[in-house]
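hey so i finally got around to running both of the ones u sent me last week. sorry it took forever, my laptop kept dying halfway thru and i had to restart like 3 times lol. anyway pasting them below in the order u listed, first the sequence line then the structure token line for each. didnt double check formatting much so if smth looks off just lmk and ill redo it

first one:
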Amino acid sequence: MENVYKKGKMKQLWEYFTTYEKWWLLIFTALTITASIIFPEETTNGIDGTILTIIYLVNVVLGIFCELLASKQSKWNAYIYIFVEAIEIAKFILLSAMFSSMIVSLFFWLPMHIFTFINWGRHEDTQNKEVTVVRSLKPKYAIMLMIGVVIWTLVLGYIFAYFGPETEFFSSESQKVVVSYFDACLSALSIANGILLYFRFKENWIVWMLYSIVSIVVYAMTGLWVFIILQFGYITNTIYGYLKWTKYIKEKKKANSSEIAQKEKNQSTT
């Protein structure tokens, strides 16, 4: 991907993806455009619905492209995701809603994408420099991470449910309370995913799956249908990414074991 990026040739970029990945990208891009046409956004907080629809559309298309790059263990997913986060922040500001996610995007994800891009660049596979070396997380650390998610959800959810600013985005006070807690959960899962992604742990895909499921509930409640398409795209790619990373880790362990065994054999014969 790095060579493709430097050359900047669309044909070479297209050839970088497998047939499945090409179809996946095209299908979900087409579904996103279709959903934005069938379910155009209404004017909210004085912002024209057409403008909101275009923002959502760009957000989704770039998002699914970045997810595909992540599944391919490409460090460039983090670089392009910087622009996705900028669009996300603009969306939250215009809607005057989902402030937990906005705070995470602004103060966590923007710098984290930069750090991840640098860190992944330091762990290139020796056999294929376009691929980043990934690994598995120990269970005890996974448990600690989930406890943190629960605490974050309860604390931040309460703050924005009862002390958040007024907005036309919610249809009732009860919806505001429920979405605020869901949003806090999303922000917590997002942070957990970012940490796992930075350290190249395959469990980030499991956390991202949970994130997508909760997101679908939130977007269904608030009528952001185009983003439901995005989350279904995330779910399918999450499965794909988890399987690819798992396969890579197994093959890497097998190769390392064979290399160690060969070295020991060579040492015994000298």
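and the second one:
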Amino acid sequence: MSAWTGGTVSPRARCVLAPNGSPMTLEGTNTWVLAEPGGARSIVVDPGPLDADHLDAVLAAATEGGRSVAMVLATHRHHDHVEGAQAFAVMADAPVRAADPQFQIGPGITALAEGDKICVDGLELDVLHTPGHTSDCMTFLLPAERAILTGDMVLGRGPTVVIPPDGVLRDYFASLERFAALAGDVVDTVYPGHGPVLPDAGAAIDYYLTHRRQRLEQVRAAIDAGDVTPRQVVERVYVDVDKALWPAAEWSVKAQLIFLGVAVENPDEVPPNPYR
């Protein structure tokens, strides 16, 4: 599989890939520039890290052909998606909308909420509240392309991390089920927050649901075998995962233990939150 490099993926969507690749972010954060063909204004989703070259590239893409930036949207609060929001808002002279008020910028800006409809020069986005990865995760449905922008709820490659207490596995399952229903009705494609575009949304969501359920059963078996700390469970269940990702896996295990109603022993031993 070739490395994801971003670029134009459809008549309305272009990905500017941030230079913050890591085991957690894959090739980097996907900053999405959306505009209706012929429209005079664009929308930027997840401006990404505070990296001057990246923000310059995003601004160039968003203002190509003389367009201006109508607004900036955030899928969720993690720094690899919104650290550069304030700087970019100044550069583009555009407001920022997010579900978390601390990331909103501009006079009279309201928080993103379930059911919002964003319309910019013919481009339409439906806003869905889809918690799980974080409590403030927002998904943007682009009906004209039968696509959804999922942030970190669904990645272009591999599973995402659920980090309690802000991330809740029960909520995550509910959001995935919602995605599955959309994939069977109005969505064909996933534009993720990291990694390549997923042209078969139904297959991608089915993989996510299947993988999560299988992991949950493996965690149940580990508990039955006497492994009760996140680290013990990871060492038994995640042997197929690169050890560089084990700290993140411990967080996912903690979320699974909470889901199963199992008290987490030595909670302070869980590694630092990788998104802080």
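quick thing i noticed on the 2nd:
The helical segments are 52-62, 79-82, 85-92, 169-183, 201-224, 230-237, 246-259.
anyway thats it, ttyl
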